[in-house]
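Pilot study result, target chain (209 residues):
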Amino acid sequence: MKVAVLDIKGKETGRKVELSDDVFAIEPNNHAVYLDVKQYLAHQRQGTHKSKERAEIAGSTRKIKKQKGTGTARAGSIKSPIFRGGGRIFGPRPRDYKQKLNKNVKRLARRSALTLKSKENAIVVVEDFNFEAPKTKEFKQILKSLGLENKKSLIVLGDSNNNVYLSSRNLQRSEVVTNSELSTYKILNANNLVLLEGSLEGIESNLIK
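Predicted structure:
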């Protein structure tokens, strides 16, 4: 599959690149995509939630009323969950939400996500660019030239580029990652995928094993 290469002004350079059918034109596996996205979202959870149970509540252990003759149910502790200020029954405890997923399943999920974006014509290939210093204004101008100013976009770099990353950091609808940081969730969460020329070789080598 051949795709035209654009410059930072959104115009065709006259060159085309070949996107591997093994990455951008496979039969999508929806279950692999589901598993990978579920794992990604689970790993975003801190797992630090905690509530006090009756053994952890500060309070007297005195029996609060006599056992019989009150006409109401028996009650032995003010820390009981049925009383206001008492402990919580089966409350949340700190836990680790990490899930295991095989590498081959994750690669299949990413290839499936890239294929889906390819079918939607939501992939743009742009020639490599750089900034002398972090400039959000210049980065926004590039997005505007590509018609992505008001859309969620994911820009994929070949190598880490601090100036480009810092230029995009304040923009809510745009995210910059390297080809090694590409995830199924980020691909699907973006309306458009902007691949720099230098990232294509890394993407294909990472996903074809």
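One observation from the pilot: The domain at 2-45+100-207 is CATH 3.40.1370.10 (Ribosomal Protein L4; Chain: A;). A full batch analysis is planned for the follow-on phase.
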